[in-house]
Amino acid sequence: MSKHGRILVAMSGGVDSSVAAVMLHEEGYEVIGLTMKTWDYASAGGSSKETGCCSLDSINDARTLAVNYGFPHYILDIRDEFGDYVIDNFVDEYLAGRTPNPCVLCNTHIKWEALLKRANKLDCEFIATGHYANIRQQDSGRYVISKGKDENKDQSYVLWGVSQENLSRTKFPLGSFAKSDIRQMALDMGQEELAKKSESYEICFVPDNDYRAFLKHKVEDLEDRVAGGNFILSNGMVVGKHKGYPFYTIGQRKGLGVAFGEPMFVTQILPESNTVVLGRADELERKEAMVRNINLIKYAAIEEPMNDVITKIRYKDAGMLSTIVQEKDKMRVVFDHNVSAIAPGQSAVFYEGNDLLGGGFLV
């Protein structure tokens, strides 16, 4: 009988999840490793060597580590669920003129659900991942996510969609460690190759981080259907032709193919007319934003305007002081100062200090 019970650990084959599994094993948990295959390179239109969390090498690395430490390891093929939900949404969002946030959807609707479903079958009380974040239960009974110790690696931003029920069974072993600590632990384990593994900041199913090529591969005749639309200014003046509205993002400056006497940026995308609006940097600035699909973490409800909230509109965003106001099923965010390049479809995530209040998708 194990000291702490049975726990299912999501193992990608990378250094973070591998060390997390070993840490829990050495703490006395009965660890079961699980590697989820979410996609394959060929279906994404890739032509170079398959890399990343779903490659055969990564799966073998996870299995080898589990065998070496004497705990079971399973592979779970969730390509159908992942493709139907995450990839289809990714394509649909770009076709709607928005910039999607696939990691949030994957965590919320695919990985946690898949892990807990398998955990139940294997009689595991808990699940664990290698995310850099912390979790605790408040006196109110609610489970709260807070930022990881390593500010450069903190991943709380992509966890705002996880439900209270799922958080109640979740552990984040790496939350109180820096990335350098984890690499050193891998070295101390005698796992030199693992410790040296590089990190990927790309979307796992988009080869070479080229989302435009991915869209062309997934949507038949997309280029022909959207090419030749107008670039316009905010006053409606046509200033050139673009390659298709799905191939541009809010705030984009490079690769526009039109020249001006000053830097110009994508300020708006109008899919109905296949139009892309360009403007100066100051035209990207906004004082307010609306957020949909709200999931609250720290509190069950926010009934009064809440001041001094830090709102992040991008993963690597430092965040901006703001006031948030619940308006029916949406949240209005009023920033203390203008923010630039608010991109519909991206996540807006709210913090009270280091605690995650919740989040949603920018309208």
Plain-language structure description:
Keywords: ATP-binding, Cytoplasm, Disulfide bond, Methyltransferase, Nucleotide-binding, RNA-binding, Transferase, tRNA processing, tRNA-binding. Residues 153-155, 314-315 are annotated as: Interaction with tRNA. Its EC number is 2.8.1.13. The chain is globular and about 70 Å long. It has helices spanning 15-27, 56-69, 79-95, 102-121, 164-167, 179-188, 192-195, 211-218, 222-226; strands at residues 6-10, 30-37, 73-77, 126-128, 133-137, 143-147, 170-171, 230-233, 238-241, 265-270, 275-279, 285-296, 306-312, 320-327, 330-340, 347-352, 355-362. Helix 1 packs parallel to helix 2 (56-69), helix 1 packs across helix 6 (179-188) and helix 3 packs antiparallel against helix 4. Helix 2 links the parallel strand 2 and strand 3 (73-77). By secondary structure, it is an alpha/beta fold.
| CATH arch. level architecture of the largest domain | 3-Layer(aba) Sandwich
Q: Please report the total strand number as a whole number.
A: 17
CATH superfamily of the largest domain: HUPs
What structural class is derived from the secondary structure elements?
alpha/beta
Supply the CATH class of the largest domain: Alpha Beta
- Low-confidence segments, given as residue ranges, are 47-51
Largest sheet: 6 strands, antiparallel, barrel
Strand neighbour order, sheet with most strands: 12-15-14-13-16-17
Radius of gyration: 22 Å
Nearest-integer average pLDDT: 94
Determine the N-to-C terminus distance. Answer: 50 Å
* Rough outline: globular
How many H/I helices?
9
Overall structural domain count:
3
Query: What is the third-level CATH name, the topology of the largest domain?
Result: Rossmann fold
Proportion in helices: 25-40%
Order of helices and strands: EHEHEHHEEEHEHHHHEEEEEEEEEE
Query: What share of the residues does DSSP label as strand, in percent?
Result: 25-35%
